[in-house]
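Attaching the record inline, Q. Sequence:
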Amino acid sequence: MVCLIVASALLGGCGKAQVELPPPASRPVKLFTVGGGSEDAVRTFPGRVDATQRAELAFRVSGQLRELLVKEGDLVKKDQVLARLDPTDYAIVVEDRRAAYDNARRNFERGKDLIEDGNISRLDFDRMEAEFRSASAALNAAEQDLEYTVLTAPFSGRIASRNVENFEEVLARQTVIWLQNIDELDVIINLPESVVRSVRDEPGEDTDLRRGETAGAVRAYARFDGRDDRQFVLRPKEIATKADDQTQTFRTTFTMDAPTDFNVLPGMTATVELNLSGVVDRDSVRWVPARAVQADSNMAPRVWVLDPDTMTVSAQPVEIGRMSGRSVEIRSGLAGGEEIVAVGAPYLAEGMKVTRMPKTEQAQPRADDPL
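Structure, as predicted:
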């Protein structure tokens, strides 16, 4: 009886269909759209305007300010007189030194005749000559000090500020006037390491900021508040080779011609656009979130690319480059516009269905990325 029951159970089991496991549910992932084209190569940075040529003007001697001939905002020409000190004391010194010089010169001339006749010793003549030379130097110094009571413009420009008023006592080397030439303006920005690397990592190529509007160069433009409809071409001037100790950014200076139809003055702010397409797009370099890149079984880098029609993912091998903060450089393997998995990549398999979570923003390395 027991055997019959067991046999019946076995036969009944053989007649049933095999149990199938339910297909895996789709996994929610956060997606990232791979950048492409020149728009992704444009970076913006806050900038500060400064005068290309500027000087702190001061008298070389002390005295009472008698004439201050300019006011803030005045345009001045090179060698124009800007201010004068009271020259009285210096004129008196010149007259005193001139009298001493004339006396020493006469003694020296007489000494020449006397030593030829043998009436004075060589020692006395040498003393006369030394006194003459000393008196000549003293007179020259006094005349120069008198000239220093007049302050002139070393170049044409605009008076930015004046720090004294008439009849004040002024010390030597004390700044009296700030003079700026604003026919040209400097625009200063601070570049992160990632951008500096982009324009410097290929020796021999025209990628250096200093090389200006050449093939493969970085193109720069400035915009100003209130005139967003216009952009001004910036010319590269200099880039620091040492990073700031606090911000780890590199001070970079551009030059532009001053606008003629509205004021752009030193101290104002600007928005600087750097077009890196000349150096970035040439190698199809793209940046993606670092956590989107996974290693396959052979430890080769890959990303998961979405098929939007089927909402499934497939592994795509990539060639990676540099790291910058939370971003990694993809040198090959991806095209602009593709969607890849940014969050959830370690849990995926080939052909797995996924559901879309809110997209992340473009993972270009930013100026505030930790490097």
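Residues 88-117 form the longest helix (30 residues). Residues 245 and 251 are 12 Å apart (CA to CA).

More tomorrow.
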